[in-house]
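Exam revision sheet. Question 4 asks you to relate a sequence to its structure. Input first:
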Amino acid sequence: MNLLKQKISKKKAIVGVGSALLDILTHESEDFVAKCGALKGGMQLVGKSQIEKVLEQISSPPRIVPGGSACNTVVGIGRLGGTARFVGKCGNGVMGNFFESDLRRQHVEPQLLRSTSPTGRVISIITPDAQRSMLTYLGASSEARPDEFAEHYFENAAIAHIEGYLLFNPDLILAVLKHAKAAGAVISLDLASYNVVAESRDMLKKIVREYVDILIANEDEAEAYTGHRNEAKAIRDLRADVSLAVLKVGERGSFIGSDEGVVSISAVGDGQAQDTTGAGDLWASGFLFGLVQGYSLAQSGELGSLCGYEVCQVIGADIPDEGWERIRNRIR
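Answer key, structure tokens:
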């Protein structure tokens, strides 16, 4: 843990690498989730024709915002006042330009690869229980090639935060990890979705052993990775090959495991949520920002909980200005 702190203390930037996607947010029934073939509470990759068919069936005009797991996290870091950078691939049309300009607006340095293909899209179906089920058309983001990534993307990076969805492209995630490690960055991996973990488990464990310093998972992802639903066993196995492991348990809070033991973090608020979209991503924003600022594990986890709470009070992963002001006041 002390070695990890020393590595982080030398630099300030947090670089997120993942899919550059537009989030399309819609409120629908449980029946709609089943009818369109989405995995309840999970993420499923679909083609362009299927996502367009589902869009034709939604009940009301959706809200559209820039998204993607790692992107959501670094946007949160930018809004907290950290040095944030995002690396991903998007289209070179209107939607790609919108994606780039919105990153700049939210204090994130965009390092975007461009394509003639459309910018990727995610339909986030929000059901009455505030759960979100995602259908993802990767579009241009799926065209990112290993040879397009280089060490300079991680210049001055204290932490490289990688989304687990990149496991669908093994050559790409390995190239990203190698460049981040060569640049001296601490590597944080968010397991992203339980079905991603289940489909990539053997490769994932090898990657974690060789490259990862910070491993972040929710209960379902942790169970898919470790085979344990029991919290104590899950956090133990998550931490087996890394310096820091995080187990998020929703409205019950989170656990952070290190060689110094396990820190229990309480959730913020009353557990009521309008929408859980981005909750884990913004939890990571607060936690990683805290680590780079030199906060203790407990303080970093508490900031993560605060960011996760605020994003659950709105639709989508975009915390409004008044929410960020409440967070900054708590930091002060």
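Marking note for examiners. The longest strand covers residues 83-91.
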